[in-house]
Amino acid sequence: MADSPAQKPNQGTAFVVNAMRRGFGGKCPKCGNGALLAGYLKPNTACCTCGEETGGIYTADIAPYFTIMIVGHIVMPLLLATEKMAAPPIWMQVAFWPTLALALTLWFLPRVKGSIMGLMWALGMRGHEQH
Question: Could you list the pLDDT tens digit for every one of the 131 residues in the chain?
Fold first, then answer.
């Protein structure tokens, strides 16, 4: 079994940010080479490059929650600014904004999940911790 992140010395902020950045890119948080996800959202059991076990990291609903928050903070200001400056016809807004929100959601969701998995890996969490 690979080293657990909790056993590594000097895990500073840079270590955590690097793991999250690698996860955002869909790569293993440990080595940055192997694929983190086997499909759109399904995690690989282990990294094919370094063997780090990432399949047991359970993110639950936190990735969709953060994705909704990110997309909402992008779409709503744009929608309000467009309405204030141009006032396009309602049919155009009904066609454009939901499409943009859906496209952004589909793009961000696996990246946010990978980032959360990288964070949890760096902190030695698996998602089944009890208080």
Answer: 445 544 454 578 999 999 999 999 999 999 999 999 999 999 999 999 999 999 889 998 999 999 999 999 999 999 999 999 999 999 999 999 999 999 999 999 999 999 999 999 999 888 776 65
Rounded to two decimals, the pTM is 0.84
Instruction: Give me the residue label for tokens 């993110």.
Output: 59
What does the chain look like in DSSP terms, one character per residue? -PPPGGGSS---HHHHHHHHHHHHTTB-TTTS-SBSBSSSSPBPSB-TTT--B-TT---TTHHHHHHHHHHHHHHHHHHHHHHHHT---HHHHHHHHHHHHHHHHHHHHHHHHHHHHHHHHHTT--S----
Residue boundaries of the structural domains of the chain: 5-122
Q: Which of 42, 71, 64, 67 is nearest to 55 (CA)?
A: 42
